[in-house]
Amino acid sequence: MYSIIAKNISKKYKKVTALDDISFKVESGKIFGLIGPDGAGKTTLIRILATLILQDSGTATVENLDNVKDFKKLRDIIGYMPGKFSLYQDLTVEENINLFATIFGTSLKENYDLVKDIYSHIEPFKDRRAGKLSGGMKQKLALSCALIHKPKVLFLDEPTTGVDPVSRKELWAMLKKLAQFGITILVSTPYMDEASLCDEIGLIQGGKLLAVEKPSKITENFSKKLYAIKHSNPHKVITTLRGYEFCENIYPFGETLHYIDKLENFKENDILNYLEKNGVESASIEPIKATIEDCFIDLMVGGR
Amino acid sequence: MEYSIKAENLTKKFGNFIAVNEITFDVKKGEIFGFLGANGAGKSTAIRMLCGLLKPTSGFATVAGFDVFKDTEKIKRRIGYMSQKFSLYDDLTILENIQFYGGIYGLSKKQILEKSNILIDKLKLGDIKNELIASLPLGWKQKLAFSVAIIHEPEIVFLDEPTGGVDPITRRQFWELIYETAAQGITVFVTTHYMDEAEYCNRISIMTAGVIEAMGSPSELKKKYNSDSIDDVFVKIARG
User: What mean pLDDT do residues A83-98 have?
Assistant: First the structure.
């Protein structure tokens, strides 16, 4: 059973192609992560699915409701949390919650079970104006408001951008719980390391989906042998290996450099010898498993 | 050993509130140092003191060899600064931005001309140097913003969340630029709350509630806190 189905969605803003033939499906009660950098098309795709803008071509359904024909019904069953804080800053926490509840013909009491875990963190501050809340609390209020009408599908646009690591962890724990209530969640993020927290992910770049898979599957599908090279002068190692005839790719990755060789049967010592011959001593090299970010880079290079 | 920053018991109080509480650390010349902390931990206050923008309450610190109490004007001339949020003027062209920053950082007309040519060649912006900044993709803006922040060859450059939001390839090109700069002897001081940016630094410090709680290379800290990422280290420290 699929909750979200997008088929061949395209969207242009004047000359800029924001989305180019996007197709994917999300199963009910799953967390789907839309992962990509700024300008990849994440917000445009979410806004189309949430009936806020129209696609140029293609079709999309959410819980079998068409995003164009059935937009009114669709709005009743989704929750949407935009990337920018969009609640009323001059209303209190409680007033904001009540406003959203009333718009959807419900009350805080009626759906308290669903929002309890999140709302209880901010309930002690219910008389405080939303504009005076800290970043983490604002986010909890926005999430409570998006959930107050017990939506079947939740759209979250970059909820963890600019949020400190502790609040990020809390948010992901909340999303896991909501998925257990049977809510389908589509969440966008620029953080590659959040991929493993999703049931399935779509890697998006330049308006195109590079891959749609389970996160573990994407890393398993990385077909090349990847190595981590460590040295105190990464700049020297990079410039040296860029001149090596069998170097397919080398790039910085945290404390190490990630290296891919062109030869199938290459030996780690070949690299160390080449480096030593060129004046780079005491480097170390070891095989490693690819991360989602390595896969993203590989897919970007392949697509060029 | 040469140091670009030396701080001993550096403290800033606002009334009764201690924003920065006796921090002690140093940064070596040519090092890439990550300065981490949650919002409100005292990071910005510490950086403003190091840049000569805010007078400390007590303690001692030198930046590029100059005293943060007395020599603030000299410090300002020996540092560069780049922030993701604010760096280049959208309504000026690429060339105008380079010239403007060259002027701000005190270069002569002749130096500005020379530097602009070198920079435009290096970043391969020759064909579009007369276009407005607004038309440049984010990744290019970041590279240009970084390059103008070091146009006057400062002793140390401060970077505020330099690589947020860009794709993984562009991001790595940016880090290569940082490595190259550090290899030339310019010290790089990165503040960020993107923990994966921290993994690229030679050493990092983590601040909570005005105090430096942990300091070391990313691998040392991961080992010490038995974590597989700096993100995890940060969460362990922040939760106490």
Answer: 94
Q: In which domain, by residue range, is B232 found?
A: 3-88+155-238
| Domain definitions of chain A by residue range | 2-214, 226-303
- Stretch B82-99: mean pLDDT, rounded? 88
Q: Quote the radius of gyration of chain A (alpha carbons, Å).
A: 23
Contact B167 A40 (CB under 8 A): yes
CB of B15 within 8 Å of a chain A CB? The answer is: no
pLDDT of A149 over the 60 cut: yes
What does pLDDT average to over chain A? Answer: 94
pLDDT at B161: 80
Confidence label for A51 from pLDDT (cuts 50, 70 and 90): very high
What is the domain-level CATH number for residue B7? Answer: 3.40.50.300
Which architecture characterizes domain A2-214 according to CATH?
Answer: 3-Layer(aba) Sandwich (3.40)
Q: Which chain A residues touch B218 with a CB distance below 8 Å?
A: 254-255
Question: How far does B73 lie from chain A, in Å, by closest CA?
Answer: 32
- In this structure, whether the domain defined by A226-303 belongs to CATH 1.10.1650.10 is answered with no
pLDDT, residue A165, reads: 83
C-alpha B153/C-alpha B187 separation (Å) is: 11
Which one of B28, B32, B39 makes the best mutation probe of the A interface by having the most chain A beta carbons within 10 Å? B39
**pLDDT of A304 above 90:** no
pLDDT value of position B86: 65
Enumerate the residues of chain B whose CB falls inside 8 A of the CB of residue A38: 138, 165-166
B239: chain A residues, CB-CB within 8 Å: 166
State whether A255 and B238 contact (CB < 8 Å).
no
